[in-house]
Amino acid sequence: MTAPLIVQPGFLFDRAAEWNDDLPLLGPKDIAAGLPDDVLGSVEVLVTVGSTFDPKLIESLPELRLLACFSTGIEAIDTALLERRGIQLTTAAGVNAHDVADQAIALFLAQRHGVIGADAMVREGGWQAGFRQGLAPRRSLRGRNAGVVGLGRIGSEIASRAAAHAMNVRWWGPREKRGAAYGRADSLEQLAKWADALFLACAISPENAGLIDRRILDALGPRGVLVNITRGMLVDEDGLRAALSEGTLGGAGLDVFVEEPTDAALWRDIPNVVLSPHIAGFTQEAGRDMFGQLRENIRRYYAGEPLLTPYFTEAAYSS
Fold first, then answer.
1. Which residues participate in catalysis according to the annotation?
2. CB neighbours of 74 closer than 8 A, spacing ≥ 6?
3. What does CATH list as the number for 97-275?
4. What's the pLDDT score for residue 319?
């Protein structure tokens, strides 16, 4: 096999020695310098990241047969175009579901229990100054309601963690899931009205951008907490900030934002929100396993074997 493999993200190309597949690799600098027509006409596999993908590259690769995505998120990839051209797509589906679910629960607990504010109070002498005397007791998690939007790999992991905290769990998605361990709400709004915490764990598509608007935030209400660890485009951020500022929403925990990095000034004076910089799946183990899954999908393609995580046979309202 002589056709080169194009690796679009630099951080993966820089790990060329780890590929160990005798594949000729072309990276970002080669792309920027301009690839010759004979190379463009021979490439069958392109490696990318779904949030920063350059769609123009597909147009220049007439023989492209596999788009191998390092990440789980594919919001910048035109999947309809891939289907029309018969290009297969693989992702990191399932690799970091445990880690992302852990971060979702961490954000929820930090917000719900006021951990960051309590830490600051202790460090600033608030305890000694009688801080606890003016502190309202929080409600126990036991018996509270956890709603999960999207009961895929990540959503299922979040649900099991919420259940372990003695919370009641329900979920919603546009399609039933056979054998689901939890009850499905009739609608997203119904789930939000029922929930004390609403966890977003659904896959991203142009159709569900802005899924969480003021109507859903109002349904969640002044005692509800929204947690988003999937993608920022799911949420009307202006509406979210307004709801938090007005107190019509109880709180939020966010690992993802509409624009990343997010403008710090947007959040500086927003109360009752805990933020992290898109690190939910950023663990040592996940990085290693995502790279391994990427390479295995590519190996299987060239060997003519079934792909490990083919998107077009698994794509659903889950991640």
1. 231, 260, 278
2. 50, 53, 89, 91, 204, 311
3. 3.40.50.720
4. 42
